[in-house]
Amino acid sequence: MVYSQAYNAYRDTNVKTASQGKLVVLLYEGAVKKLNEAYSLFDESGRIKPSDIEHFGSTILKTQEIITELQVSLNMEAGEIAHNLMSLYVYFNSELTTANISKDQKKIQFVLEMMTELLDSWRQAANSTANAPAGYVPKALNIEG
Predict the structure, then answer these.
(1) 47: left (phi > 0), else alpha (psi -120 to 50), else beta?
(2) Euclidean distance between CA atoms 19 and 145, whole angstroms
(3) What are phi and psi of 116, to 5 degrees?
(4) DSSP letter (8 states) at residue 46
(5) What value does the CA radius of gyration of the chain take, rounded to a whole number of Å?
(6) I want to staple 22 with a disulfide (CB 3.0 to 4.6 A). Which of 18, 29, 36, 137 is the partner?
(7) What is residue 73's DSSP assignment?
C-alpha cells in the first residue's frame, strides 16, 4: 500500500514537472505499454480467451484515449508535420476500433510497431530540445505552448 502511494506521488510529480516534449513521450509510452498488454492477451493461435476479452477491450480503449489526447495537443497551425500526425492518429484509432471489434492481432501489432517508432522519434526530439529556450520547444515539437 505504501509503495503504491509513493509510486503514484512520484508519477504525479513527474507529470506535473515534465516539459511538453516529455509529456508527449509519456503519452506515447503509455500507449505502447497498453498495446503490448493487449497484444500479450492473444494466444499462440491468435485468439483471446473469453475471460480476457473485457481486459483486452479496456486496454484498447485506454490506448485510444491516449491517442485522442495526442490529437488534441497538436498545434495544427504548426504545419505539415502536425497535419500528418493528426492523420496518423485518426488512422490508428480507426484501426484500433476495428481490432477491438474483430480481435485482430495483426492490426494491434501494426499500430504497436508504428507507435513504437514514433515514440523513439519523440524521445529524440524531446532530448534534442531539452536545453533549448522555452519558446523554442513547443514550436519544434509541433505542440501548443
Answers:
(1) beta
(2) 10
(3) -65, -40
(4) S
(5) 17
(6) 18
(7) H
Q: What are phi and psi of 104, to 5 degrees?
A: -90, 105
Task: Copy the grid coordinates of residue 112.
Answer: 504497436
pTM above 0.85, yes or no: no
User: d(Cα 131, Cα 1) in Å, to the nearest integer?
Assistant: 37
Contacts of 72 (CB under 8 A, 6+ apart): none
**120 residue type, one letter:** D
- Residue 100 identity (one-letter amino acid): N
Mean pLDDT of the chain: 84
Cβ atoms of 63 and 31 closer than 8 Å: yes
- % pLDDT > 70, the chain: 76
Of 28, 34, 17, 48, which is closest to residue 114 (Cα–Cα)?
Answer: 28
Q: Output the DSSP codes for 91-126.
A: HHHHHHHHHHHHT-HHHHHHHHHHHHHHHHHHHHHH
For residue range 103-125, list pLDDT tens digits in order: 999 999 999 999 999 999 999 98
Helix (H, G, I), strand (E, B) or coil at 48: strand
Location of C-alpha cell 513521450: 25
As beta bridge partners, residue 29 has none
Query: How many residues does this entry show for the chain?
Result: 145
